[in-house]
Amino acid sequence: MLAARRTTPALVRGYAAAAAKEVKPPIALFGLDGTYATALYTAAVKTSTLDPTAKTLSALSALLSKDAKLGSILSTPTLSSADKSAIVTELLKTTNSASQPTVSHFLQTLAENNRLGLLGDVAAKFSELIRAANGEVEMIVTSAQSLDNRTLGRLETAIAKSAFVGQGKKLKVTNKVNPDILGGLVVEVGDRTIDLSVSAKVAKLNKMLTDSL
């Protein structure tokens, strides 16, 4: 069980480094949110709580997506110690994770270091670690209108055989709708983007016309 004590940013980094000696994260993450996500991942692996931790982080991410005000509250710089403690307690209660010491310690660490506003970003980075550990590669297909399963299936088959994915990897496909692209598709696989949208073609054409004037 992780000891519940005051943790400074330096100690978080030290804790992550110590954990990394025994547990190697599947991918390297950068930024402060990446540091926290990596520390949480290694701690969860060491305490054999990776699955419940992943489920709780997913639930917290969904909670933030549904409640825009919550994100603003977490980012408030003037929160008192009592406020932060109450917020952590409520987050644990809402996600039914009060009995999970790994998640509890993680949220307390964010609160003590005035980093609760990073929760959404850390959750997203943590999801990246989980996907990488499971050999998954996320493919986000953005279209002006929702795509049917047949079209998504054909795209998945085509991309799965390409060098974008890599041998032994699994694709996790998500279709996002954005009318602003006008038509066509924007395909994001890992850190690569294939922009086949009408809006991109229009922008390219406009640039060519502007350059020629």
Protein model, in words:
The structure is a single chain. With 213 residues, the protein is α+β, with helices and mostly antiparallel strands. The protein has two domains: 9-132, Peroxidase, domain 1; 135-212. 56% of the residues lie in helices and 13% in strands. The protein is built from nine helices and four strands; from the N terminus they run H-H-H-H-H-H-H-E-H-E-E-E-H. The chain has helices at 9-20, 31-46, 50-66, 68-74, 81-94, 101-112, 119-133, 149-160, 198-212; strands spanning 136-143, 170-177, 184-189, 192-197. Strands 2-1-3-4 form a four-stranded mixed sheet, sandwiched between helices. A hairpin with a 2-residue loop joins strand 3 and strand 4. The protein is globular and about 60 Å long.
List keywords for this structure.
213 residues, alpha+beta, Peroxidase, domain 1, 2 domains, 9 helices, disordered N terminus
Short description:
Belongs to the ATPase delta chain family. With 213 residues, this protein is an alpha+beta fold. The chain has 2 domains: 9-132, Peroxidase, domain 1 (Orthogonal Bundle), CATH 1.10.520; 135-212.
* CATH class categorisation of the largest domain: Mainly Alpha
Largest sheet: 4 strands, mixed
Estimate the strand proportion. Answer: 5-15%
Number of alpha- plus pi-helical segments = 9
Going by helix content, strand content and strand pairing, the class is alpha+beta
Shape: globular
CATH architecture of the largest domain: Orthogonal Bundle
Question: Could you please say which CATH topology of the largest domain applies here?
Answer: Peroxidase, domain 1
Sequence of strands across the biggest β-sheet: 2-1-3-4
Quaternary structure type: single chain
Helix content: 55-70%
Order of helices and strands: HHHHHHHEHEEEH
